[in-house]
Amino acid sequence: MADIQLNNVTKNYGKLEVVHGINLDIEHNEFVVLVGPSGCGKSTTLRMIAGLEEITGGEISIGGRVVNDLAPRKRDISMVFQNYALYPHMTVRENLGFGLKIAKQSKDIIEQRVNEAAAILSIEDLMDRTPAELSGGQRQRVAMGRAIVRHPQVFLFDEPLSNLDAKLRVQMRTEIKRLHQKVKTTIVYVTHDQVEAMTLADRIVVMKDGHIVQVGAPLDVFERPVDTFVASFIGSPPMNLIPGEIALQDGRLHVVFQAENTMPVPRDLADKVVEGQKVIFGFRADDMMPKAHSLPILGEAYDLRLAVDIAEPLGTETLLFSTFSGADIQTKMFNPRRVEPGEVMDFNCALDKTHLFDAQTGKSLRG
Ligand SMILES: Nc1ncnc2c1ncn2[C@@H]1O[C@H](COP(=O)(O)OP(=O)(O)O)[C@@H](O)[C@H]1O
Ligand SMILES: [Mg+2]
Q1: Taking the CA atoms of the chain, what radius of gyration do you get in angstroms?
Q2: pLDDT per residue over 174-202, tens digit each?
Q3: Quick one: 211 and 257 in the same domain?
Q4: Residue 116 domain-assigned?
Q5: What pLDDT does 2 receive?
Q6: Which residues are within 8 A (CB) of 165 and not within 5 positions of it... i.e. 6 or more apart?
């Protein structure tokens, strides 16, 4: 049975509807990440699950129980925010135990739960410090500890790492993943950062303008984006998207771009398009690499020449910037070597991994 169910949930602020009838089933112990650009309704959705916002329409249930009218503290959830406020005059130990003390738990239980959380988060050495004596990452760990001690059915996280610097963010990301492996609970996690979503989630839920656009395992969404929005939002660098038109050339359907450039339509998409159709051709940087600098190509390869304007060496890989039929594109190169600005290189395109989207709707033609 799903642990959390959202059935046709809507949210209005006054007359304005900001969440438009979303449906989502979250499994027991699943780590689900809601991801999307700022303002798409992630926090509102999370706060409705928490009970911090009333829902305007639809139904939310947690553990099989409809919670529409249930107070937040009765929902058996713990929430960790971006702006966690620790009590400045209390020690870490007191901060961790405070919620349980208020809930009138016995001293023994409080001590046991606090010690357990401290062990999970490796903060045993910090227990007698006050928040002022902690680094940002340590404070964030204490904030998570306060959620852990309550043994909730569900953890809700709203951009918990946004205030940390880049290095610490990556470190805490791993810790949150480890936390989920140790404390098996359902987690709903909100972020605008697609890398965080990809790395943490069992399933990601991509949102846009108050709608769910796509739900799936990170790699499935990466490999089969349903539309150009998901294609460019998930994955870094963003998928290259180039407008073109379908035409028959030498007995095979091709995408014809500006300036007479063409690319054959991948064989598995040949029956999804018709001559004259306006499309957007998409490919990832990883699927267009210079020869001798590429990964092995599975399926059909297509050769083309490109001039490289700029090369950005990152160590193992180098990002290459070019122009193709009026569009700025990014490709990748392994086995690094120096690339001169303007250098023309022979590329291999992994044609079977490319995408076609309808130019009008932006929807993937893979269906
Ligand atoms: N209290 C509020 N009153 C009015 N509009 C709000 C309120 N909270 C959020 N919104 C609007 O709802 C939409 C979704 O917001 P939010 O859920 O915070 O987005 P996200 O967390 O994805 O950035 C935005 O357009 C935002 O301006
Ligand atoms: Mg938000």
Answers
A1: 25
A2: 888 988 998 888 999 999 999 999 999 99
A3: no
A4: yes
A5: 61
A6: 136
Q: Whole domain around residue 51: which residue ranges?
A: 2-233
Domain count of the chain? Answer: 2
How many C-alpha atoms does 134 have within 13 Å on its Cβ side?
26
**Is there a single domain that holds both residue 163 and residue 138?**
yes
pLDDT at 333: 96
Q: Is residue 367 part of a domain?
A: no
Please spell the DSSP secondary structure of 151-174, one letter per residue.
Answer: --SEEEEESTTTTS-HHHHHHHHH
Tell me the β-bridge partners of 262.
256
pTM exceeds 0.90, yes or no? yes
Residues 221, 275, single domain; the answer is no
CB 179 within 8 A of CB 121: yes
* Residue 38 CA, closest ligand 1 atom number: 23
What is the DSSP code (8-state) at residue 126?
G
What pLDDT is stored for residue 84 in this prediction?
72
- Altogether, the residues listed in the chain come to a count of 367
Q: Is the CB of 41 under 6 A from ligand 1?
A: yes
What are the angstrom distances between the C-alpha of 6 and each of 9, 27, 210?
6, 12, 14
Low-confidence ranges of the chain (pLDDT < 70): 1-2
Q: Which of 213, 233, 253 is the last residue of a domain?
A: 233
* In a shared domain, residues 47 and 192: yes
Both tokens assigned to 200: 């943490």
CA 291/CA 205 separation, integer angstroms:
36
Model pLDDT for residues 55-64, shown as the tens digit of each residue: 999 999 999 9
**138 and 41 housed in the same domain:** yes
Report strand pairing: 327-333 vs 318-324: antiparallel
User: Which amino acid type is present at position 341?
Assistant: P
Beta bridge partners of 240: 283
The reported pLDDT for the residue numbered 1 is 53
Cα of 158 vs centre of ligand 1, distance in Å, is: 13
Residue 343: the pLDDT is: 96
Q: Tokens in use for 322? A: 């070019």
Looking at ligand 1, which residue's alpha carbon is closest to its atom 4?
13
Q: Which of 233, 256, 278 is the last residue of a domain?
A: 233
Which one of the ligands is nearest to 11 CA? 1
- CATH code, 318: 2.40.50.140
- Which atom of ligand 1 approaches the CA of 158 most closely? 21
